[in-house]
Amino acid sequence: MTLEYFARHSSQPQLNQKDMASPSIIDFNDYDLTKTVVDKDALLKVLRQRGRFEMVDGLLHFGAGDDIVVGYKDIKSDDWWTTDHIPGRPIFPGVLMVEAAAQICTFAFMHHSEDNMDKFVGFGGMNNTRFRGTVVPDSRLIIVGKLLRIRSRMFTYYTQGFVDGKMMFESEIMGVVV
């Protein structure tokens, strides 16, 4: 049996051009990435995560009803995960990158309608997730979300994360009102 046979008869998705990094959702030259437009206090009035799971430090671009949201997470050398993931070489966990993206998208979803503000949104899933680099302490992870679909009880955003202009991850994030 050849590789070609397995490729035709496998239930697993085949690698193709989609496995290469997608173009950036935004042109970073069009955005002021130095000015926080929604601070952590305002985020915490909407998002329900607390303590170690407050994954968003601020938004750099946000407009109620806008299809694009840009936020950030400052990755610090004294963050709770640094001693265990990975000892001697801390790497920000990919699952936390995606969680940060989900929180940014949830904040934007909540502002699409006043009816959403009292709802609780849970993680509905993710598709086409790829990690493209390592995020290490003392860096800023810029997360961009672009709205793909929205309904009264669910949303899907395409998200990307960047450090110093280099893509670290991309994923479709789904949220569901629970």
Number of domains: 1
E-strand count: 6
Strand order of the biggest β-sheet: 1-2-4-5-6-3
- Characterize the quaternary organization of these chains: single chain
What structural class results from the helix and strand content? Answer: alpha+beta
- Predict the CATH topology: Thiol Ester Dehydrase, Chain A
Biggest sheet overview: 6 strands, antiparallel
List the secondary-structure elements in sequence, H or E. Answer: HHEEHEEEE
How many DSSP helices? 3
Q: What's the CATH class, please?
A: Alpha Beta
According to CATH, the homologous superfamily is Hotdog Thioesterase
- The fraction of residues in strands falls at 25-35%
Distance between the termini: 47 Å
Taken from the alpha-carbon principal axes, the silhouette is globular
Give the rounded overall mean pLDDT: 90
Summarize the amount of helix as a percent range: 10-25%
- Residue stretches low in confidence (pLDDT < 50, at least 5 long) are 1-16
Structure description:
The protein has one domain (35-177): Thiol Ester Dehydrase, Chain A (Roll). It is 16% helix and 32% strand. It is built from three helices and six strands. The chain has helices spanning 3-9, 40-44, 94-110; strands at 58-61, 68-75, 121-131, 139-150, 154-163, 166-177. Strands 1-2-4-5-6-3 form a six-stranded antiparallel beta sheet, with helices on one face. The termini are far apart. Residues 1-16 have low confidence and may be disordered.
